[in-house]
Design brief:
CGNR zinc finger domain-containing protein; Znf_CGNR; about 220 residues; two-stranded antiparallel ribbon; binds zinc ion; mainly alpha; about 50% helix
Length: about 220
């Protein structure tokens, strides 16, 4: 769950474990959103993440710093990926080094359910996240990594839907705001057209143009 400036909370599914880490803060201006300060914060992130089941973790302070370092490197690589530029070597080195460490070990629980072997370290958790990044960046959905289409939203997700037409971080949030704005724009152009109708000599022409604009907006909105 994320919190909007309005205070409303909304669900954001970035579609991949490694992208879920990007919601915890980031380099530069994203530092402002930092939530990984102490071991309990990384444990809480793992609970919120798509890891199933939640691994039992023992995390050190050094591993929290490492989590921030991995996240910032991943952030750098993803932003460059979105711009279609070559990957920065330094950031790739961080991701690859973390991915090379032992990851969370999967296990079969006594009840036959999926489990993780014993208590895992923060290092294992981060290795799993870094490997997920390697799979995402080199896999079939690499070209489906996108930033939300809203101007004031930088959330990054991978569109794994079959049609591949996802545009928003969340339909509940940016998708809805866009819809509301499109409806308002249509209403104000409709009332502008009404006002134009009462102006002698301008009415018909204005109205036709407004109608065209409405139809165009309507068509665009259907793609939401
Ligand atoms: Zn958004």
């Amino acid at each position: 769950m994320l919190r909007a400036r309005s205070g409303a909370t909304y669900r954001f599914d970035p579609g991949a474990l490694c992208l879920e880490l990007l919601t915890t803060g980031g380099p530069g201006v994203y530092r402002h959103y930092e939530v990984l300060h102490q071991p309990a914060d990384l444990v809480a992130w793992a609970e919120r993440s798509r890891l199933e089941p939640t691994p039992e973790l023992e995390v050190s302070d050094a591993e929290v710093s490492e989590a921030r370092r991995l996240r910032d490197a991943l952030f750098g690589v993803v932003l460059v990926h979105l711009r279609g530029e070559p990957y920065p070597g330094k950031e790739l080195d961080v991701i690859n080094a973390v991915a090379a460490r032992p990851a969370l070990a999967p296990a079969v629980g006594v009840d036959g359910e999926r489990a993780w072997a014993g208590v895992s370290s923060g290092t294992q958790l981060l290795a799993t996240v870094a490997r997920d990044a390697v799979e995402l960046l080199t896999g079939p959905f690499a070209h489906r990594i996108r930033a939300c289409a809203a101007d004031n939203c930088q959330l990054v997700y991978v569109d794994t839907s079959r049609p591949g037409r996802r545009r928003w971080c969340s339909m509940e949030h940016c998708g809805n705001l866009h819809k509301v704005r499109a409806i308002r724009a249509r209403q104000s152009s409709a009332s502008a057209a009404d006002a134009a109708d009462s102006t002698p000599g301008l009415g018909d022409r204005e109205d036709g143009r407004q109608r065209q604009r409405r139809q165009r907006d309507g068509g665009r909105e259907d793609q939401v």
